Amino acid sequence: MVLCFNILLSLITSCAFVHAHPLDRNPVDEANLAALLSSQPIEADDVIIETIALQLNRTSRDSKCDACINRLLIGKTLVSTRPDLVAPAFTKWCVDSKYSSNNTCYQDYGISSVNGSSEGSNYADLLSQMDPTGYDGHLYCYFRDSYNCPRPVTPNVTISHLFPPKKAEHMTAPEPGTNGTFNVLHVSDLHIELDYTIGGEANCTDSLCCTPHSVNRHKLEGASSFKGLWDSYFNSYYNEDFSFEKGSEVNVFNGTSWMPAASWGYYHCDSPERLINSSLNSIVDYATQKNVSFDFTIFTGDMISHDLGKHISYESTRESEVRIMKDLKSRMGSTPVFPVLGNHDNYPYAEMAPQKYGFYNKFSWNSDLMSDMWEDFGWLNEEQAQQSRTHYAGYSVETKMGLKVISLNSNTWYPSNTYNYINASAVDNFGQFEFLIEELIASENKNQRVWITAHIPPGLGCLPIPSKIFTEIVERFSPSTIAGVFFGHTHKDQFEILYAGSGNDTKSMENALNTAYIAPSITPWNDVNPAWRYYEVDKTTFSIMDMHTFYTPLNATYSNDGAEPTWKYEYSARDIYNISWPQTSPLNASYWHQVAQKMKGSVQYRQLFRNLYYRYAPNTSNCSTSKDCDDDYCMVTEFTADDYNNCVAAVST
Ligand SMILES: *[C@@H]1O[C@H](CO)[C@@H](O)[C@H](O)[C@H]1NC(C)=O
Ligand SMILES: *[C@@H]1O[C@H](CO)[C@@H](O)[C@H](O)[C@H]1NC(C)=O
Ligand SMILES: *[C@@H]1O[C@H](CO)[C@@H](O)[C@H](O)[C@H]1NC(C)=O
Ligand SMILES: *[C@@H]1O[C@H](CO)[C@@H](O)[C@H](O)[C@H]1NC(C)=O
Ligand SMILES: *[C@@H]1O[C@H](CO)[C@@H](O)[C@H](O)[C@H]1NC(C)=O
Ligand SMILES: *[C@@H]1O[C@H](CO)[C@@H](O)[C@H](O)[C@H]1NC(C)=O
Ligand SMILES: *[C@@H]1O[C@H](CO)[C@@H](O)[C@H](O)[C@H]1NC(C)=O
Ligand SMILES: *[C@@H]1O[C@H](CO)[C@@H](O)[C@H](O)[C@H]1NC(C)=O
Ligand SMILES: *[C@@H]1O[C@H](CO)[C@@H](O)[C@H](O)[C@H]1NC(C)=O
Ligand SMILES: *[C@@H]1O[C@H](CO)[C@@H](O)[C@H](O)[C@H]1NC(C)=O
Ligand SMILES: *[C@@H]1O[C@H](CO)[C@@H](O)[C@H](O)[C@H]1NC(C)=O
Ligand SMILES: *[C@@H]1O[C@H](CO)[C@@H](O)[C@H](O)[C@H]1NC(C)=O
What we know:
By secondary structure, the chain is of the alpha/beta class. It has 18 helices and 16 strands.
């Protein structure tokens, strides 16, 4: 890993002080430097940008991993004198050398502004504090920059100094009481598309479909083959009293779109607001018809659209968050909602900066906005809202029945958060795990049971160290204190079992400690039917006794004369897997262990899991004819990022 570091340094410092460096490097650099140094007054910024971009391009002669590390080193040198030039220099290099697409270059390195989610200043923040040649750099070059370096070995970390040792009494969960159950609603991944446009291209080849800027690279010749099948009604919406206005029918087959977006959405698009309203109304309708009430709702995050950064703005981010909170409030009434923020729920996308390293107030507009609304709506009290403002929108609440719900911001463990590569081998850069442990110890001491909610599940798309630390904590406090952990993010209906001594191949009924419940999404992106669920919860122990999931087959709305989607009962988790299980026993990790074993042994069970995973959407995998389902056993039986990775590697060899 050789780099012309001094040259760069001299180049940059020369701009400030002029000359004083030996010009004994290769000709390209010398020429640039000579030009720079001879210019009086000192060359303009664009010359420095140009020279840095050329230096960055020169790294393409190194091995992929060295090249990536060397770029970080160049950036680190630049940021120490001219942080303002990091964004333009890296963008120029990225675009000119075609390192990524134009869109990706601007997203990753572009100058940050209110229009177009560009992360250039976050990248400069990262460079200012990271260690490019150590774990930080290697982790970054694997997870955040195109797998350029091999996946680094995870250091042997622990956070056990923050909690007392686990005792024998912590190895068992309390038995459900005799007081019956109550219900908790779980909705996830709403992803509102503010730009949803009826007639927009639903079969797009670039960016997200169903917007005014969605295009199909291939020109449609003649009429769309879908003519006559798609019912599109303009201006159909729900009133404040939930009543539905069908709007007026319109022929969107005018020859411009392969598939004109219809009223309720499509599998390659995010949710039009009317689909979100329909989902929430279906919940209220069901509750009314069946005389079911929900004590509270958990919302496991993601409100913003998946569109390219250039179509997302600070304003549209705020607007999406506010709109969704209001829609939830309008339908949930006096039932409290306990939300978390998802990876999409910040601007720029996925960023979250650790206060510990000096980034105070960096994104406080977001935790302030959300905490203010949560408090105004009566979901959090004053103290909890204040905790949320200062804890990256994470908080702890005690429900009226005595359950504690702890909500975390999982961008602290997400690979797309640029700030996660600062001092990445430290175990708790955000102080979030310390907060979690303090809350758990307090509950353990008074025999209170706890639910944990966050957006991103630990095994799927999570950085190895925080995944391991989170798992260590959940293992320590399970099954006695932690009654359940709840996530969204994948859009799929799935679960992850935590076994004692995770990763050491002890997947047995006795070792099964806890289960992560991963809820299906409302958004149909990508290839799933919109779905929501509720849990039947034991009143005494807060253990899950059953889980009921509902969905709507979105394709039925293409030819339904503009009517509202029809929502269906999908399944009961206690019934569908045909496992003999005592009615009085909760659906604990031992139950899910049996489901996992059935999946391991039978293609029919893997297919059943996949049908639920996609909610019977048209592109549901066929486990007999495709390899899609091969990793499913790893997916449901591994809890940490590394264990899942190792398990999949073992399956594929
Ligand atoms: C980047 O470097 C490569 C050789 O490694 C060269 O072919 C290419 O022209 C350079 N691109 C720019 C924009 O300088
Ligand atoms: C590249 O993206 C930027 C930012 O979105 C835009 O301003 C520019 O026009 C794009 N250039 C090309 C060639 O597409
Ligand atoms: C951002 O976009 C809005 C409208 O979409 C426009 O009014 C505003 O001028 C733009 N701001 C900048 C800084 O480009
Ligand atoms: C990891 O650390 C623990 C103590 O923190 C120690 O017992 C164990 O042997 C270490 N494992 C490795 C592979 O270094
Ligand atoms: C076709 O319909 C779309 C959506 O309504 C509209 O934006 C577009 O202008 C129409 N094109 C023509 C040629 O009428
Ligand atoms: C979607 O567009 C592609 C061209 O990009 C075309 O080949 C395909 O048939 C289209 N699919 C449908 C269902 O219209
Ligand atoms: C969704 O419901 C909210 C709250 O009642 C309402 O303000 C909004 O106009 C509705 N939007 C649509 C498209 O139905
Ligand atoms: C609805 O359920 C409540 C208890 O949850 C019960 O008190 C009430 O009588 C029920 N109403 C009807 C109409 O069944
Ligand atoms: C990295 O984290 C460790 C452990 O928390 C801490 O002691 C150290 O000061 C941090 N390093 C930097 C450069 O902030
Ligand atoms: C593996 O599991 C066994 C059985 O539960 C346990 O005794 C052992 O401590 C675990 N090993 C590790 C490294 O956690
Ligand atoms: C359950 O019922 C028993 C007796 O009916 C009562 O003493 C106990 O407090 C109840 N527990 C809860 C959590 O409601
Ligand atoms: C929707 O898709 C499912 C799954 O492919 C299919 O069984 C069903 O017939 C479709 N419904 C309509 C109305 O096309």
